[in-house]
Amino acid sequence: MTDSETFLETVETENQTPLSRLGSSKSLYAATEGNIDTEPVLRATADAEYAAWQTFAGWADDEDRDDVREAFETIATAEESHYEAVLDELGIDADDFEPEETPALHDYLRDLEGTVERLGGFVGRTLASDRSKSQTVGFFVGNADPQTASLFREFGDDLDDQLERALAELEGACESDEDWERAEDAASGAIETAYGEYVEVLEGMGANPKPVC
């Protein structure tokens, strides 16, 4: 039977190319639709954090397993905190911020049903988000803004903690190889959805989604 370590290795190996491209410098270009500057980067991040907060709070509300519900509640609270921290950086009150359209990744996640599928999808989302967060850190480092870069490093540390907890919850939720396969399908689906939107946005701007060699 699969374990969480093998599961994670499999998901990362099978999605090596999309994860690599989501971690390229073009991820910020796509997220900001070509306007790579401080405010657009922060606004794109606020949109993503808000969507994550809403997704995982919704999962917590209808989760039957107490331990998994608590995990989703903790994750949702962290994402809400991230959202509020980014709004502080923008100098915008939450009542005055209008999130953009929900990212395709979160539409995908919200359509998942079942604890195993949601935990798997969460792992895929976290692997994709971790790649893009590194580019955000790099942007603020390059912009001589170490304080904001440090904030996003903290977000990345939170993602690491969330991934570890989700993998631990999967160990308890998966009772068969079929369960692990469903989790893998959901994880890969999340990554593929994030990558698909990345490609669509870049191609819509006339940019090549493949890295420049």
Q: Secondary-structure element sequence?
A: HHHHHHHHH
The structural class is mainly alpha
Distance between the terminal alpha carbons, to the nearest Å? 40 Å
> What is the beta-strand fraction?
under 5%
Percent range of helical residues: over 70%
User: Low-confidence parts, pLDDT < 50 over ≥5 residues?
Assistant: none
Question: Quick one: how many beta strands?
Answer: 0
Largest sheet: none
How many DSSP H or I helices? 9
Integer-rounded radius of gyration: 17 Å
Shape call: globular
Mean pLDDT comes to 93
Give descriptors for this structure.
single chain, mainly alpha
Could you explain the architecture of this structure?
This protein has 213 residues and is mostly helical. The protein is built from 9 helices and no strands. The protein has helices spanning 4-14, 16-22, 26-31, 38-61, 66-90, 104-111, 115-142, 146-173, 177-204. It starts with a helix and ends in a 9-residue tail after the last helix.
